[in-house]
Amino acid sequence: MKPSKVLRRCVACKKLLDRQQLWRVIRDHQDGVVLSFGMGRSAYLCPNEDCLDVAQRKKRLQKALRCKVPESVFEVLQKRLIQSNELATKAR
Prior knowledge:
The structure is a single chain. The chain has helices at about 50-55, 60-65, 70-90, and strands at about 5-10, 15-20, 25-30, 30-35, 40-45. With about 90 residues, the chain is α+β, with helices and mostly antiparallel strands. The protein has a single domain, classed as YlxR-like (Hypothetical Cytosolic Protein, Chain: A, 2-Layer Sandwich), CATH 3.30.1230. A hairpin with a 6-residue loop joins strand 1 and strand 2. The protein is globular and about 40 Å long. The protein starts with 6 loop residues before the first strand and ends with a helix. The mean pLDDT is about 90.
């Protein structure tokens, strides 16, 4: 029997995708808002410029996590996006 995919919805575009294709942002009870690893309330975001922009402008991560998301989290996500775009360009 083939294992089923775990689907999650992007908070910006609302697409339902395999969670491995999305960035995970977590509201941790100790450390505040963290990326990728940890326990706590989670929100998922597509790794693309449009979704990151919508999530920041319309405060979609704040609403999903029910807390203030520091600007530094968006800066780290922006850096990840730039790095993944550079890797994709080099792979061609």
